[in-house]
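Run log, item B.
One chain of 155 residues. Sequence copied directly from the ordering sheet:
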Amino acid sequence: MQKPKILFVCLGNICRSPTAEAVFRHKAKDAGLDVFIDSAGTGAWHQGETPDPRAMAAGKSRGYDFAGQTARAVQDIDFEDFDYILAMDRKNLTHLMDRAPKSSQARLRLFLDFSQQNMDEVPDPYYGGANGFEHVLDLIEDASEGLIKHLKQKS
């Protein structure tokens, strides 16, 4: 089986999706999974920027590495290149579904479909305080465990 390719997507690719990329990269490595992981935004406002300093500080306090990450927008080729394109919320999922070419084989889903939590969206912490970034990490860690379990069952 070829290496699964996973793209995490939020609005600007500076808070939630880079956090998901960092957390999942760490957890997948610990689980012995060989996966390709990236993140992107449905918007290009932050193109080329590093993740939000608050997201990085919260993630680093839990041992996650954001090195090398810069914001980018979803590209048409992503729908061909990735096996899973996982949105952080319904609005971004709808945007992805509307944009996906008919020929796309990527599985478009909400990331929290893999979570044990009773939530379906990762809330955007951008305009809130530090607690919002901690809550996002909690949700992403849980969903990452569920996604790892899913991928292991498929291999």
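Observations after the first pass:
- Helices lie at 16-30, 53-60, 78-81, 90-99, 130-154.
- Residues 15 and 55 are 6 Å apart (CA to CA).
Flagged for discussion on Thursday.
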